[in-house]
Sigma-24 (FecI-like)
Amino acid sequence: MEGRNDTPDEELVEKIIAGDKAAFGRLVEPHLPRLLGLARRMLSSADEAEDALQNALASVWMARAKLDPRKPVAAYLTTVTLNKCRDRLRRQKVVRLLSLRALGPDVAVAADEPGPDVEIADRQLLAQVTNAIDRLPLRLREALVLVAIEGRSHGEVAKLLGVTEKSVETRVYRARQRLRNKIDFL
């Protein structure tokens, strides 16, 4: 996996623990697109996702002394990012509960070739699906996003969430069932 000119992750982690910011950048850079995608899917907002990822990376940097050079960093970064997304979701729930502001999903629709009627139908379906996913209980949403959207295996998700593979399988199944019940044609 590592080329001759690449610095192994173990060496980078040791440099990071010593306070090397450039090493931190080299370590996390390959993971950024995946982590940002995960955060976007969890939070349904590009801005919120960027903020959550930035907070996650800041947390990792601040707690760099706890990093273990022998352990892979991808799972750790994913866990920290998920935790920051959970924090934001909790805050959003409180804000909605207190009715301080209305939060709606950012729905991006590409409009290259489809006609207006197809575009409207697609936009409505996407909004329905996004809204239905946003309303899933957090445990179901996490499992669904990690397995169905991120493409991770049940075993990998089980390790990330600290549950059994069967539990992940059940959560994904229940999430899909709830989505089917809420959206007629899925």
Notes: Residues 73-98 form the longest helix (26 residues). The domain at 110-186 is CATH 1.10.10.10 (Arc Repressor Mutant, subunit A). Residues 1-6, 99-105, 107-112 have pLDDT under 50 and may be disordered. The chain has two domains: 1-106, 110-186.
